[in-house]
């Protein structure tokens, strides 16, 4: 009962604008940050229902809006695929969404962030170039349009991959049994891609079963983080989720984006039992594969979801 009440009070406090805990940027960042730096954290995710125009994909972008990086606001939109094709993973309206969140940050803090860290969930390796061509460029263009003559922020863009088959274990020398690794375990050598900025982070303690580490790929790094800095920052952000007293498996901005996408879909009267990633207008797997490769960004129609003003700028 105690833990239940504690969790409930945490959620109440967060909903009312309170702060449950803060990430110590000074401890995480040693060389890439100064006391004058103003950070803004983004998280983004796209969830898919069925492959039809009746059930569009939901794209959610989350941004921190206070100096402590504990309060977030969301922007959510629908993405309708062309008839007979599946939707893309790319967020088409990222320019508008990120512009709105940048404006809200400036309104609440009276200044512009000079460093932006963007965590993007759910992108396959085959979409990395599309993310570079569209999403990172959209974020850069949003900054150019909003900052006008002010110095532009430096951006670091990180892909968060949950779906993989890699697991880590540690052997107990006394019993010979294999157990989960400790929270905070990082693997960034030997098994990661030698030509990219990759690392595995197991940030949480599994309640039961095998813990699943998260694979992070730093796709774009204008800030110039060292490996230790970006790994520490990511680990610290896993502790800042207002819904939990312990570290979660992914950074708070990504978790919030995932929740915003699912909750917005439910709020728009989508059926909970239609949460498969495939189905709808396709007759067989060959059609699915053919259409998966042929869809373009121009064929995707979008609509931003307008939430009630009382909750639009809160989480």
UniProtKB/TrEMBL annotation:
<dbReference type="GO" id="GO:0003676">
    <property type="term" value="F:nucleic acid binding"/>
</dbReference>
<dbReference type="InterPro" id="IPR036397">
    <property type="entry name" value="RNaseH_sf"/>
</dbReference>
<feature type="domain" description="Piwi">
    <location>
        <begin position="1"/>
        <end position="269"/>
    </location>
</feature>
<protein>
    <recommendedName>
        <fullName>Piwi domain-containing protein</fullName>
    </recommendedName>
</protein>
<dbReference type="InterPro" id="IPR003165">
    <property type="entry name" value="Piwi"/>
</dbReference>
<dbReference type="InterPro" id="IPR012337">
    <property type="entry name" value="RNaseH-like_sf"/>
</dbReference>
<dbReference type="Pfam" id="PF02171">
    <property type="entry name" value="Piwi"/>
</dbReference>
